[in-house]
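Hi support team,

I've been running sequence recovery on a batch of backbones for a student project. Most finish fine, but this one hangs at about 90% for roughly twenty minutes before it completes. I'm not sure whether the input is malformed or the queue is just slow. I've pasted the structure tokens below so you can try to reproduce it. Let me know if you need the job ID as well.

Thanks,
M.K.
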């Protein structure tokens, strides 16, 4: 999946708090969360430890790695690893630990 232009910005809405953040296309969801002061667990920051798992309620992301540490059924149910996921459109995210 092709990345949108780096200058593009999307809305990242946090379902649990109602907060909406500006999410740059060239920043991971975790980077966006942490820059905004949102407390979100993370460890490896490369999609393998699963500490940052959340659930994508709406929207699409692309991954910086070919296969993030999600099972196919987790991906199908909306699970997302914010440390390796980049926005492709406006998103609604719940979690962490979703």
């Amino acid at each position: 999946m092709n990345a949108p232009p780096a200058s593009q910005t999307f809305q990242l809405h946090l379902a649990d708090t109602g907060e909406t953040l500006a999410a740059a296309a060239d920043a991971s969801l975790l980077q966006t969360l942490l820059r905004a002061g949102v407390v979100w667990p993370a460890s490896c920051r490369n999609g393998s430890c699963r500490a940052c798992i959340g659930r994508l309620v709406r929207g699409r992301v692309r991954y910086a790695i070919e296969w993030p540490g999600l099972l196919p059924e987790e991906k199908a149910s909306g699970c997302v690893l914010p440390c390796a996921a980049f926005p492709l459109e406006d998103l609604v995210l719940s979690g962490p630990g979703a």
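--
Follow-up from support: It reproduced on our side and the slowdown came from queue contention, not your input. The radius of gyration is 12 Å. No action needed from you.
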